[in-house]
Design a protein that fits this description.
The protein has about 230 residues and is α/β, with parallel strands linked by helices. It is about 25% helix and about 30% strand. It has one domain: Bira Bifunctional Protein, Domain 2 (BirA Bifunctional Protein, domain 2, 2-Layer Sandwich), CATH 3.30.930.
């Protein structure tokens, strides 16, 4: 029988704490101390720079960002610069690639994440799609979800950020993912109002289950390691 994937909603947590959590969760999954899981979170405003990050993708000074209380964090995921903030649903699947239909194929894994988002967004009557050569999900010329992943010991981490109802003005701080000629949208800007967070989470869980052909079950947030102490405050 195919083992279920647990899905946790951790709520709003500091970005650096979530990064520490992911590193510990990857170790736990690689050593088979726990099963596959998807963690849904929300962050305070933060900019993260991936392995392909370029200085010119940042449109304001780090000094100005610090004055606004916005952190800038370099991380090991792929891609350029991206924004996380309130009103997004950020998903961090911590999964062994060998247990997915795509197997140990990172490019197929990225396409799977895109497909999860496309199906979840389609439930709202929106025609979301890929836009090669870029990674992510778009409605027309506007990007509604960014994706950036990393793999360690064939366990995937990092993930995607879906714009439900963020402050779209915050994207003016950057060239999102290094792209200058295309826009950014949210479910709110496209639909006229933001759907409830719990509803979007339910649609994402359903889409993950369809794409990976495995049950995805809502679960209570873990209270023991690999969750670091910084998330218990």
């Amino acid at each position: 029988m195919t083992s279920p994937i647990a899905a946790y909603d951790l709520g709003r947590i500091p970005y650096r704490a979530s990064l520490e959590f992911q590193h510990r969760a990857v170790i736990a999954r690689a050593s088979e101390a726990c099963g596959d899981a998807i963690y849904f979170v929300e962050h305070d405003p933060v900019l993260t720079i991936g392995r392909a990050g370029r200085a010119e993708s940042l449109r304001v000074s780090e000094r100005e960002l610090r004055a606004r209380g916005v952190d800038v964090v370099s991380v090991e995921r792929g891609g350029d610069i991206t924004y996380h903030g309130p009103g997004q649903i950020v998903a961090y699947p911590i999964v062994a690639l060998s247990g997915l239909p795509s197997g140990r194929d990172l490019h197929r894994y990225l396409r799977d994440l895109e497909e999860v988002l496309i199906r979840a967004i389609a439930a709202y009557g929106l025609s979301a799609a890929r836009r090669p050569p870029y990674t992510g999900v778009w409605v027309g010329d506007q990007k509604v979800a960014a994706i950036g992943v990393a793999v360690r010991r064939w366990v995937a981490f990092h993930g995607f950020a879906l714009n439900v109802d963020p402050d779209l003005g915050h994207f003016d701080w950057i060239h999102p993912c290094g792209i200058r000629h295309l826009g950014v949208a949210s479910l709110r800007s496209l639909l006229g109002e933001a759907p409830p967070r719990r509803e979007v989470l339910a649609r994402l869980r359903q889409s993950f289950a369809q794409v990976w052909d495995r049950p995805v079950e809502e679960a209570e947030a873990p209270s023991r390691p690999p969750l670091p102490e910084t998330l218990h405050a």
